[in-house]
Amino acid sequence: MKNEEHVKQTIGELKKMGIKIFIDDFGTGYSSFSYLNTYKLDGLKIDKSFIRNISAQSENASITSAMIKMAQLLNMEIIAEGVETLEELEFLREHGCHHVQGYFFGKPVCAGEFEKRLREKEN
């Protein structure tokens, strides 16, 4: 991120290939609101620390709903990571989150196991 012009050019080339660009772990670490203006991003990936216990922690609920609303106003997609409960999933659906991922749907598996499960669903 030190060479802004190079990053912009690289993002542009990736987008020409049909690759969508998201800010990962938005709200923590090195993610910055300035990136929303600087780079042509497709969306935000909300960090799991905001999703965890969302129904019990009103601060997480407020921050997450604000991030979703902001992304919607900027015509960006939203991915919430770390969804582990039905309550978390329902909260995200109610607030218009586009995509979710987490252990609620399944734990990570190797490529071979994933292929096996996919083939079982096809049959």
UniProtKB/TrEMBL annotation:
Residue ranges annotated for the EAL domain, each copy included: 1-122
MF terms (GO), sorted A to Z: cyclic-guanylate-specific phosphodiesterase activity
Annotated TM spans: none
PROSITE patterns the UniProt entry points to: EAL (PS50883)
Gene3D superfamilies: EAL domain (3.20.20.450)
PANTHER family membership: CYCLIC DI-GMP PHOSPHODIESTERASE PDEF, SIGNALING PROTEIN YKOW
Name of the protein in its database record: EAL domain-containing protein
